[in-house]
Amino acid sequence: MSHLTHDQQQELKSALLERKKELEHHFHANGEDNALLGDSLADSTGELSSYDNHPADVGTEVFERGRDLAVNDTLQDELEQVDSALGRMDRGEYGQCVECGRDIPFERLQAIPYTAYCVEHTPNRDVSSDRPVEEEVITPPPSGAGENRQRYDGRFDDADAWESVEEYGTSNTPAMAAKRDVTDYDEGM
């Protein structure tokens, strides 16, 4: 930590300790390590049965539960990184990249106090280049399909609506005519 002044070290250590306190408070405030998240959906929602619930309500519960699990996993990883950074600080290795050994700039440590890497060696999240298997069997639509949609380029107004249905006729039949004593279908028009 030779490149960091004593004041910088104290600032970063207090930031790490504060973040650790926030993360631990999150886990304790939400139950002992979020114990309910490990239970069944019925136990965590308090419902005896989901039989009488609307499927959308159950879907919402499942979504929220999945989101909570993902948030907790992310926060647990961050807590482990904070603990690791505090350990490196105690050993005098804090502020040095674990990959190349170079000093990590103070500005980077202010932004991410628990980082163990310089910018050049930050582990990248691998973005999968794999495509869904469904794309292998998708074929383009047959010719002529969707020509109207392509012609109008997504715009469809009242005049276009009339053009597309006028061939089917109108509701101006003798039954709807103003004078109903019409004997011939074409006479009242």
TrEMBL record:
It comes from the Bacteria. The keyword Zinc-finger applies. Keywords: Metal-binding, Zinc, Zinc-finger. PROSITE patterns: ZF_DKSA_2. It holds the Pfam family zf-dskA_traR. GO terms for molecular function: zinc ion binding. Residues 125-134 have a biased composition (Basic and acidic residues). A zinc finger (dksA C4-type) spans 97-121. This is Conjugal transfer protein TraR. It comes from Paenibacillus rhizosphaerae.
